[in-house]
Amino acid sequence: MTGLAGDGLQIAIPQGALFEGCLDLLDALGMDTSGLRSDSRKLLYEGEPFSVVTMRPSDVPTYVEHGTADLGIVGKDVLAEYNPRVYELLDLGFGACRMVFATPAEHDHARQAQRRLGEMRVATKYPRTTAAYFERTGRQVEVIEVRGSVEIAPLVGLAEGLVDLVATGRTLEENGLVVREEIATCTARLIANEVSHKLKGGAIDAICASARAWTGGEHGAS
Amino acid sequence: MIHPIPPGTRDILPEEKLELRDLGEKLLGAFAQFGYREVATPTMEYEGVLERGDEWAAGASYRLFDEQGQVLVLRPDMTIPIARMAALRYVDAPPPLRFCYLALAYRSVQPRRGQQREFLQAGVELIGVPGLAGDAEVIAALCQALDAAGLGEFRIGVGDGTLYSSLARGLGVEAEPLLEKLAERDFVGLERVLGDLEIPAGQARALAEIPRLRGGPDVFEAALELGGEGRIDEAIARLRELNDLLGDYGVADRVIFDLGLLRELGYYTGAIFEVYDPAFGFTLGGGGRYDDLLGRFGKPGPAVGFALLVERLHIALAEEHEETLEGEAELREGVLVVGGLDRDVELARRLRERGLTVDAVLAGTPDPRGLARDRGLRHVVTATGSARATYEVVSGERDPSIEAAIEL
């Protein structure tokens, strides 16, 4: 059994936008990433000094929280949304995105809905982050959770606006949406299981130190 | 028909219950070796009374009203009730007082395996022994209990709840915002807050790196080097002395000193500890020193204790002995007696008198062998009324005392 019970370390990394950055970091940590970079459907790569398992981003905190992965790399957006009971050890500096509130460039009904109906509807994949943001900034909203392509929501009238993670901004632009408010900047973070953090402290600190050095170099400290 | 039970509660069926009882007895047995005596306190207490111990009543979540409209809560832990009990019933008793317990407690947590809303705790409270002498005994008792339970690979994380605030104060920095980040386990946030403060780099480094130090006694030197003007000499000296005492107890190698350790409950005033095992991704329990608590109930005095989450311990044990989860459960030394309820009650009686566990069923019950296997019984005796009863084993050796009982 890998994870806590094994001697080595198991790291969970997210598929998708952060994957390439993770591979570059793993290279710097001395892992042979050729298997991961290949077209293989394999999800678990066992090896020394650590094993890597790939998964969808929102699952990384779950595996790390339960200890089946000792470490994980995950975006701050996911961490803020799920608030897992894990140690957040390092800002890895890559994968920078902005969490924003956006509405249609033309036909923007958000303000009117807020004033005349008391609340506006906001579609999002991040319901907790969204609710917390609007509460913090004093506005009543209805949060409508959608699972994908949140840009459609304001275009077809499901909501007046959306909260989503934005990288280049192209998707919003192409769908006639404009960023109205910036909520947070999210980068990739290194997280650790609370028990692994103690029982495999030496190995984890070593990885943290190497990762910090790598972050300070190519990608710049943030 | 489905009969739901509240989320976070469970029915515990015989096989699991037997294992939990066995585990509980081993833990209490270990506590007894250190002189701890088992007590029980009410499951429901007055909210107002528990709040004397801690303003949030230590996170009590379930409230009821009695016939006078008084608010009662289901106890969220045993430490505050035992403090109340000691202050009330042991006013003039000479120290030390040693109490232990195996009891259910209640919190409205997010239910998951090993984290229920109604959960079983095993723990001790040592009252009247101040400082390291008390801390060391309690940690040693904890190790003894985990050994008795059969957990091979555990470690105890030990920290000092006052260390970081002393460090911050010594450096002239407000501790609250930093402690908040530490409590959230957010080292990135901690560094960010430190970055926003206008303090010398050495101080920022101390505040960022000292809480990351964990391991053996070598962390003490490292902390002192980083600490500079921060007032951590006392806390470090205490931890060093604790380490020596733990060596005398023979448990120093089980301890990981963790200078960033924080516990969630608000009443800890000194040493704090947590239990870890590589077979389980969450802590198995914890505790610490709480010298202010008894005073709040009118009998000031030092106290230290810990609580183990028995269900988590059980899971960790099962995972550690992974191979026992595969395959079939072992069969017990018990006898299924077909006809033991009606055709030949005397036979069942004779078997019981020989100290055997007897599971009696009606004569003519089909598939006795399969039934015995299901119930985890190794032997099957079938009463025939007139002729001698028949005896077969489901597995393993025949038992001569069963043979003898059948002869009569």
What can you tell me about this protein's structure?
The complex is a heterodimer of chains A (222) and B (408). Chain A has helices at residues 19-28, 34-37, 60-66, 76-82, 110-117, 127-136, 152-156, 170-174, 196-199, 201-219, and strands at residues 9-14, 44-45, 50-55, 71-75, 87-91, 97-104, 120-124, 141-145, 161-166, 177-186, 188-192. Chain A is α/β, with parallel strands linked by helices. In chain A, the strands form two sheets. Chain A has a six-stranded mixed sheet, sandwiched between helices. Chain A is elongated, with a radius of gyration of 19 Å. The relative contact order of chain A is 0.20. By secondary structure, chain B is of the alpha+beta class. Chain B is 38% helix and 22% strand. Chain B contains 15 helices and 16 strands. In chain B, the strands form three sheets. Chain B has a nine-stranded mixed sheet, sandwiched between helices. A four-stranded mixed sheet of chain B has the order 14-13-15-16, with helices on both faces. A three-stranded antiparallel sheet of chain B has the order 2-4-3. In chain B, strand 15 and strand 16 (390-393) form a beta hairpin. In chain B, helix 4 (131-149) crosses helix 10 (233-248). Chain B is elongated. The two termini of chain B are 48 Å apart. The chains are: A alpha/beta (222), B alpha+beta (408).
Structural class of chain B: alpha+beta
Secondary structure category of chain A: alpha/beta
Helix content of chain B: 25-40%
Q: Average pLDDT value of chain B?
A: 93
Beta-strand share of residues of chain A: 25-35%
Mean pLDDT of chain A: 91
Instruction: Please tally the β strands of chain A and state the result.
Output: 11
From the alpha carbons, calculate the radius of gyration of chain A and give it in angstroms. Answer: 19 Å
Number of DSSP E strands of chain B:
16
Terminus-to-terminus distance of chain A: 36 Å
Q: How is the largest sheet of chain A built, in terms of strand order? A: 2-3-1-4-11-5
| Poorly predicted regions of chain B | none
* Main β-sheet description of chain A: 6 strands, mixed
How large, in whole angstroms, is the Cα Rg of chain B?
27 Å
Calculate the terminal CA-CA distance of chain B, rounded to whole Å: 48 Å
Q: What helical percentage do the residues of chain A reach?
A: 25-40%
Low-confidence stretches of chain A: none
